[in-house]
Write a structure and sequence with these properties.
With 329 residues, this protein is of the alpha/beta class. The protein contains seven helices and 16 strands. Helix 1 links the parallel strand 2 and strand 3.
Length: 329
C-alpha cells in the first residue's frame, strides 16, 4: 500500500494489524538506485515492511506505527541524525534495516536513547549505502545490535568508527562484516588504549569478513585479542594493510582468502607470531587471487557460485555414501 502523506498513518487504530507492505512518502521511480537490485527485491518480499522515502523530520504517523513492522527501508531521509530520533522503543520488532542516502545521519544509534527492554533484541540485518555524513555506527553503550547477524557498510566517506569496545561485547551473534568504499576507516575497532588491547574478546559466530576499497585501513582488530572462527576473508584495494596477525587470520578456521596477488605477496609476516618461515603453507593453498582488471563484484559473485557448487557436490558425496551403507546392511 502506498501512503503519500505520513500524517494519514495517525488514523490507524492501535489494535489493528498491518499485515502488509507499506511505502510512505513522496515515492518516485528512479532510473538509478544506490541499493543493489537483489537487495531491493529481497526487501520487497519481506512481510510487515515499511519503506519511508524522502522524509523530513520524524512524522508522528510513522513513529507511532514502526513497532508493527519487521523490516525498515529508510530511503533519502532529508533531516534525520540517527535512528534514535524515531525512539528505539518503537523498533522493538525490527529484524531488517536498510539505510540509503540519508545524508544528515551522523550515527546509526545514539547511546543516549537506548532502550533497556526487549526493544533492542530483534535487529539481525543492517545494510547502509551512500551516507555522506555518517561518522559512526553507534555512540555510547547500546544494546540495539545485540542480535545482529550481518552488517554491511557501503560508501560512507566520513565513517571512522565501526565498532567500539563497548559495542564489541554485544556482538556474539555477528556472522558477517562487509565494509566497502569507506576511505577514512583505519580499523574495525576504534578507541582502544594500550591497556585495553590486552582484553580478550570472542566473536563465536563470525564467519565472513569483506574489506573492499579501504585506502587507509592499517589493521582489522586494532591489535585487540579477538578470537573467532572466520572461514572466508575478502580483501581488495587495502594498500596500507601490510600485515595480518594471528588474531586476524586463524589457521584453524579460515577456508578461503580472496585478494590481489600483488598485495598478498607483499604481506609481512611477523616471525614472533608466525615463525621464521613466514607465511604458513596452509594459507598458500586457500588463497584465491582477484584480477585487478576485471570487475570485483562479478568475481566475488563467481567465487560464491563456486563455493555453492562445492558445497552441493560434498552433499551429494555424503548422500551417496550413506545410501551405499544402507543398501549394504
Amino acid at each position: 500500500i502506498y501512503v503519500p502523506k505520513a500524517d494519514l498513518l495517525e488514523f490507524i487504530p492501535a489494535q489493528s494489524s498491518l499485515n502488509f507492505r507499506l511505502v510512505v512518502g513522496q515515492h518516485m521511480r528512479r532510473l538509478i538506485s544506490r541499493v543493489p537490485p537483489e537487495l531491493e527485491t529481497k526487501f520487497k518480499h519481506c512481510d510487515y515492511s515499511i519503506k519511508f522515502v524522502n522524509g523530513v523530520n520524524v512524522p508522528n504517523g510513522v513513529k507511532m506505527n514502526l513497532w508493527r513492522f519487521k523490516a525498515l527501508y529508510l530511503d533519502r531521509h532529508m533531516t534525520i541524525k540517527s535512528l534514535s530520533d524515531f525512539d528505539l522503543r518503537n523498533l522493538w520488532g525490527l529484524e531488517v534495516c536498510i539505510l540509503a542516502e540519508c545524508n544528515e545521519m551522523e550515527t546509526i544509534v545514539s547511546g543516549s536513547n537506548s532502550p533497556d527492554g526487549p526493544a533492542s533484541l530483534m535487529l539481525k540485518f543492517l545494510s547502509v549505502f551512500y551516507m555522506k555524513n555518517l561518522r559512526s555506527v553507534c555512540e555510547g553503550s547500546s544494546s540495539f545490535f545485540l542480535c545482529l547477524k550481518s552488517i554491511a557498510l557501503h560508501t560512507c566517506p566520513m565513517l571512522t568508527t565501526i565498532f567500539t569496545l563497548d559495542s564489541l561485547k554485544k556482538l556474539s551473534f555477528l556472522e558477517e562484516i562487509i565494509v566497502e568504499d569507506c576511505p577514512k576507516v583505519t580499523t574495525l575497532i576504534s578507541h582502544a588504549t594500550p591497556e585495553q588491547k590486552s582484553v580478550f574478546f570472542f566473536l563465536p559466530k563470525l564467519r565472513i569478513i569483506s574489506l573492499l576499497y579501504l585506502p587507509e585501513l592499517v589493521n582489522i582488530f586494532n591489535g585487540m585479542h579477538v578470537e573467532h572462527d572466520v572461514e572466508k576473508m575478502v580483501f581488495y584495494y587495502c594498500p596500507k594493510l601490510q600485515s595480518l596477525s594471528q588474531w586476524e587470520l586463524s589457521k584453524a578456521s579460515v577456508k578461503i582468502i580472496i585478494g590481489e596477488s600483488v598485495w598478498w605477496e607483499a604481506l609481512k609476516w611477523n616471525a614472533a607470531e608466525w615463525g621464521d618461515a613466514g607465511r604458513p603453507n596452509v594459507f598458500e593453498r586457500i588463497f584465491s587471487p582477484i584480477s585487478e582488471e576485471a570487475d570485483i563484484m562479478t568475481q566475488l559473485a563467481a567465487h560464491q557460485e563456486t563455493q555453492l557448487s562445492t558445497d552441493h557436490d560434498e552433499f551429494l558425496v555424503i548422500t551417496v555414501f550413506f545410501l551405499f551403507l544402507y543398501l549394504m546392511f
